[in-house]
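Field: COMPLEX_INPUT
Field: COMPONENT_COUNT = two
Field: RESIDUE_TOTAL = 687
Field: MODE = joint
Values follow.
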Amino acid sequence: MSLIELKDIQKTYFMGDIAVPVLKGISLEINEGEFATLMGASGSGKSTLMNILGCLDRPTSGEYWLGGKEVSRLGADGRAFLRNHKIGFVFQNFNLLPRTSAIENVIMPLTYTAEMLSDRQARSRGRELLDRVGLGDRIDHEPSQLSGGQQQRVAIARALINNPSVLFADEPTGNLDSHTSQEILSMFDKLNKEEGITIILVTHDLSIARHAKRVIRIQDGLIVKNANGEINSPLPDIATGEVK
Amino acid sequence: MKSIGKNPGRMTLTMLGIIIGVAAVIAMMEIGKGSSIAISKTIASMGANTLVILPGTAASGGISFGAGTSVTLTPQDCEAILRECPTLRDAAPIVRIRGQIVYGNRNWVPITIYGTTINFLNVRDWRKLADGETFTDGDVRNANKVCMVGQTIVRELFGGVSPLGKEIRIQNVSFRVKGVLSRKGANMMGQDQDDIVLAPWTTIKYRVSGSSNQAAASGSSSSSVNSLNQLYPGSGQSLYPAQSATQAADTPLPVRFTNVDQILAAARSPGEVQPALDQITAVLRQRHHIRSGAPDDFNIRNMAEMTAALSSTTVLMTKLLLSVALISLIVGGVGIMNIMLVSVTERTREIGLRMAVGARSRDILRQFLVEAVFLCIAGGIIGILVGCGGSWLVTRLLGWPTETSVAAILTSVLVSACVGIVFGFYPAWKASGLDPIEALRYE
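Field: COMPLEX_OUTPUT
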């Protein structure tokens, strides 16, 4: 059974009388343990698709099955629950709380978790995660005292605090130099291979997309299918631009 | 809770509105309370708390002799009233006479000659003497011929010279002046209160107005109605032939008690005048053995109009101060709301993030509301300290009376919390209504 299944998802924005369709019928399946990239130019609808997958937004029509449950008709509170327990987010601009230590940033989602953890349990879980991302010696540093790469690693640790089923990363290396970007991507690799976390990366950068085993391309609100009707498109060569 | 401590400068600015509002409330209420207590005392010293207890009306053959003509009040009544009415500050019996006073070659007819006890000065809030000393309980016991005089007497009879130790004659009885009363001015009715002579009531009753033995023997029921005493002052001439020893044994005279003309009492505060009135009525009815349903054989008068005027002034002032205070707190609340709105706008990304990791609408609402209430209560407590300190300074430097008002302090804390909830609600509600996607994109 797939972890994520989209069936004919459509999303239309209404600006007064004018209807602007952004997603025109997306269907796809993502299995547990996959590392997939969502690629598309700006305006292609990839951010909207990401928001729907991440339960930040609701589709206008269609079905979204997450972990065997249909979630497209959930209300705001239901989606908030999913965002807390089942989904982890990593953003391009890190979105850490300023003037707050790394450990407190990491355990922040626990404030909204229904099962109350004691302060000590929360902190020990946070410390464990910071160790996992290689920041065990910087748990009390504030974002202003951390480099970009380190901040993103704190954000990854935060995304993992509640053992989510899937991790969504929206241009996670957009604000990082190439060397740090590689570090972060290796981290994603490690998490995917060693711990089996399902990762969906959104990017417009080809070199980033190569890291994933699977590339899903979106254009004008629809998934791009290759000649065989498959949605897993091969990527063009970096040097020559040829598609194999 | 920790998120508030992140920005101490912002926190202080937010609290400032409430601090100033609450401090103003506290200081104003304490100064106001002090002033109204001072005014209360002033008007009270003019007699707003006093009660005049008069005996009932005597009548004979359907003809009333006028108010206060029957002899039903005794000095023991006065002592009982003092003992058994806790709402009274003090009470004094009064025996009144009118007459001429003479010193050397000058004479004068004072408006008031009272025989009373020293409690009288406490009842009339007149304890401070201009000169000399008061007569004592001992003087009352022994019916000594001593007296105190008011400033007008000093002017009229002594030409402004100190009368201490000098002898004046009241109704041809010689009195030594022991003390001079301080200036009091005219009373509410325009009567000169300094035109007064005070002496022990026993002296006035037994040595000046004619002895009560004589009153009993002569069969007249009230010394003030006995016109013969006025014609032949102190002559002791009896109207009826003296009884021989046998006759006295055979016809026992009814036991006559000593009476006084009035009892003057003062309640502890204007608010306690009515309870005092009720208590005095109860005590006197019991002492005079008046059956329930039967009318009182006495009258109690109070300064009802003055009391009403005093209360309305105090109430008006309190209401005025309260409305000003409320306005200042509302201003403080609006300040809080403004700064919280700014804070919400600044933290839009943070709110979006919190929602993205699982915060529900009501979690965000609660977070911001709690922050607002906490700031308001903290500001309220600081404001109370500043306000109390401010009113203390006012007392030290300006000499205005202030009174710590526990009610104002408790109300301020409560109102601060309410202001926090009311004025913090709109920003919190706005924060909780943000769309997470928009919020995350906010620059």
